[in-house]
Design goal:
With about 150 residues, the chain is mainly alpha-helical. It folds into 2 domains: about 25-90, no CATH class; about 95-145, no CATH class. It has 9 helices and no strands. The longest helix has 16 residues, at about 1-15. This is Lipoprotein.
Length: about 150
């Protein structure tokens, strides 16, 4: 269950990173628009200003790769762009994101996952660390109980 939660967390963040607005310009602005549109298709609302702030930090090369990719997961991005994609969790309605993740895990998940803990952990997630994916995984693991 823990591995599935971490995988689903990563998938949700990747979906968000595959997903815009008015603050970023050029290709970065187009990436922001793509991110917001994609997130909406997945049922997530992203804060446009936040997404634009994140997208504006992308290099021109990474922005072009994202726009050229049919599937963002297939785009070969720099380590910096991968790190920036995790910042998008701060642009989402974390409560709705966690609720959807738990629902997708199935009916037994509610007994194993402390959703309040997970919501708090994701809201307090420090994406500036050297390994934000590990930070996210560690935060998620603290909120899962295998019982027994």
């Amino acid at each position: 269950m823990k591995k599935r939660l971490v995988a689903l967390s990563a998938a949700a963040l990747f979906a968000l990173s595959a997903c815009g607005g008015g603050g970023a310009s050029g290709d970065q602005g187009k990436v922001a628009d793509k991110l917001i549109e994609s997130a909406a298709e997945e049922g997530f609302k992203l804060d446009e200003s936040c997404v634009n702030d994140v997208a504006s930090k992308l290099s021109d090369e990474d922005a072009a790769k994202i726009l050229e990719a049919d599937d963002i997961e297939a785009a070969e991005l720099s380590a910096e762009a991968e790190k920036l994609s995790l910042e998008l969790v701060t642009c989402a309605d974390v409560d709705a994101l966690v609720d959807q993740m738990v629902a997708e895990l199935g009916p037994d998940a509610a007994d194993m996952i402390d959703t309040d803990c997970l919501k708090k952990a994701f809201k307090e997630l420090d994406t500036s660390s050297g390994d934000p994916q590990a930070a996210m995984a560690n935060a998620a693991m603290q909120c899962v109980s295998l019982g027994g």
